[in-house]
Amino acid sequence: MRDLSGIVKAYDIRGVVGEQLDVDVVRDFGAAFARLVGGPAIVIGHDMRDSSPGLAAAFAEGVTKQGVDVISIGLASTDMLYFASGKLDLPGAMFTASHNPAKYNGIKLCRAGAAPVGQDTGLTQIREDAEQGVADAEGVAPGTLSERDMLTEYAAYLRELVDLRTIRPLKVVVDAGNGMGGHTVPVVFDGLPIDVVPMYFELDGNFPNHEANPLDPKNIVDLQAKVREVGADAGLAFDGDADRCFVVDERGEPVSPSAITALVASRELAKDPGGTIIHNLITSRAVPEIVRENGGTPVRTRVGHSFIKQEMATTGAIFGGEHSAHYYFRDFWRADTGMLAAMHVLAALGEQDGALSALTADYERYAASGEINSTVADQAGRLAAIKAEFGAREGVELDELDGLTVSLPDGSWFNLRASNTEPLLRLNVEAADAASVAALSDEVLAIVRA
């Protein structure tokens, strides 16, 4: 029997093509998913990686042999697949490894209406079935395979949610990282008062220019330089499957995902006063402050899209944001879409005359460290040492919702979490200014790395 535990992650399936992931395994994943969700059909999309079309076809074969139809939408961003799942009210499968290197591929699965499938909501069952191999269904006619282009409908739907037709003209540099943003951006922004300066729009799953992970500062250097060179109003960087978007201002300076969360939350609350906004525990404390100032109710969650989506469903939240530049919208089936967040930023910018740096300054209230990783053999032991050290101090509050969050009397705080997949502890620090962030980071790391 196969052991697929190494590639079935908490929220998706991901592995090295040809070694961990091949057409035989993927065919069984397709059959197992069809058995889990049933008919009448499953919608499938894929990114631009060389291996994606073949793997998507194998998955479709597994589905149809269970008597379930397949609707293929072909090349797609992950949020376009979520759109198709929501619009058609069908389960979906997206073939992508997001920002991972070219040798990887993977599958993101959802139920009808873009509802997430994770380890606790079906992924464990899919893994167990695929490990044993799934026999073709007996006594039922094979499902059919049809194709449907959803790109135009996807673009039209987003443009209904955020109307950019009447904003002032903007020049925007977009770095697609040779990923799916190069496929979706031209259609979404077509005919709008936005002069798009394209970078790396050629679809190439080998990522010849830089890794398609805009959260790593080295991957936005080209974007920052181009924004300054052409005098753009803003810059956008998408990851490989274009579900995350990172923003830089007219100076080429990064705008934190927490500031984007606060900005979009303010706009959504203006449309839906008194609404609930979800934020994970690593986003800036400015986010709940600004949500309250705008009459909304902030709700804090663990890190991870399954927690965000579940909390959105439970609370009826209108919007949610994460420090990793994932943005979730009730009006987008509670799924994440970086494109819609980017459109909100451009709308906010284009509806007034000031620069993006001035606009976002209102949402950037504190200094932050970003994520600092430490390789630690005894993660639990180091966490316990931090808890003992800071827990003994007067006025310090401890919270173990996700890892350990320590709040100090001066308003500074940090979160220390263990990685689920590597021997790492991840540290995030926020304080009033950069010097305070550095001092607190050094104090915590001295204990973590002792």
Textual characterization of the structure:
The model has no long low-confidence stretch (mean pLDDT 96). Helix 1 crosses helix 2. This protein is of the alpha/beta class and 450 residues long. It has helices at 23-37, 52-64, 78-88, 123-132, 151-161, 181-188, 221-230, 257-271, 286-293, 305-315, 338-350, 356-361, 379-391, 434-448, and strands at residues 13-16, 41-46, 69-75, 92-95, 104-111, 115-116, 145-147, 170-175, 194-199, 234-238, 245-248, 254-255, 276-280, 297-301, 319-321, 327-329, 367-368, 372-375, 397-399, 404-407, 413-418, 424-431. It is globular, with a radius of gyration of 22 Å. Strand 10 (234-238) and strand 11 (245-248) form a beta hairpin. The chain has 4 domains: 13-149, 3-Layer(aba) Sandwich (Alpha-D-Glucose-1,6-Bisphosphate, Chain A, domain 3), CATH 3.40.120; 153-253, 3-Layer(aba) Sandwich (Alpha-D-Glucose-1,6-Bisphosphate, Chain A, domain 3), CATH 3.40.120; 257-341, Alpha-D-Glucose-1,6-Bisphosphate, subunit A, domain 3 (Alpha-D-Glucose-1,6-Bisphosphate, Chain A, domain 3), CATH 3.40.120; 367-448, Alpha-D-phosphohexomutase, C-terminal domain (TATA-Binding Protein). The longest helix has 15 residues, at 23-37. It has 14 helices and 22 strands. Strands 1, 2, 3, 4, 5, 6 and 7 form a 7-stranded mixed β-sheet that branches.
